[in-house]
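Section 5.1 Outputs to date
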Amino acid sequence: MVALSKMKLLHHDPKATDPLYNKIQEDCRHFNPPTLLRDRVEKLYETCHDLVDKKFPSQIKHKFASCYSELYFCATFRKLFGSSVLHPSDKGPDYYIQDLDCWAEVATLSDGKKDNPNSILRPESGVVGSHPKDQIILRITSSFTEKAKIIFTYIEKGLIKENQRIIICISGGWIQPIYRFPCYPVGGFPEVVSALLPIGDMALLLDENSNLTGKRTFKYKDYVNKKKENNCMETIKTNYFLDPKYSCISAVVYSYANVSDYSEGGNKFFEELGSDFFIIHNPLATINRLPYGSFKCGTEYEVEVDSNFINIKTNTY
């Protein structure tokens, strides 16, 4: 048993380059208790301190959001699978869930650089704007493909066996606060689904005689437009889960949580870990398919493909 005092992660450090690292340690009168946010970080670290890289206490001072995302996913997996969650090496994937024979790699979305025309911008006060769906999808596809490249190298090096399951965990909790919560119509799908599968706008089939709403379907759309510096457009694919190249990825787990979520501390916070998850299964994963219901939290999308249709079943836990 390791004493809690030895697990303390946060220390005020004037050399920390991420201002959020020190800011999160200040008391906040809007929370009860005022120490809620830093207590939350310390509790997550206490839960899974043995599963992070040796450099983690140093890295969080410079990349707080991405490090918190790792803690959040890791603590959720430990809550769900206990001691089955391992971190075999700093030189390989982030986590290994032994019960599922599944590797996990974590990515964190950012808004992008201010001078990037595809960045997610803060909405202007008093100005009518639109939800930046395409920009969010572009951030997701970028993170997905970058992590996929890393996973391909792990497979080539033999760190991951070809028949083992792999999930990419993507945190969207640190983009602009107003946009981090997925925005989609009732019966529709969040941006992460449209980033992996060619799901376009919803269409309702109406009965011509009764005018009653009939079957709900979606337009096929396998790309989003990306603005280039010369004002030209580049198309970025959004059908990765129909591309055999990515069949080694069993699923994507998307989270929109960040450190300020949930108004209550203590056990209530840990009870809700993973309630924000969107789990999208890859229909092309065969020998490495992740069993449906493996996580039993958040919202899960079972995806099946036949010659003409993509069928998606939604399960909410």
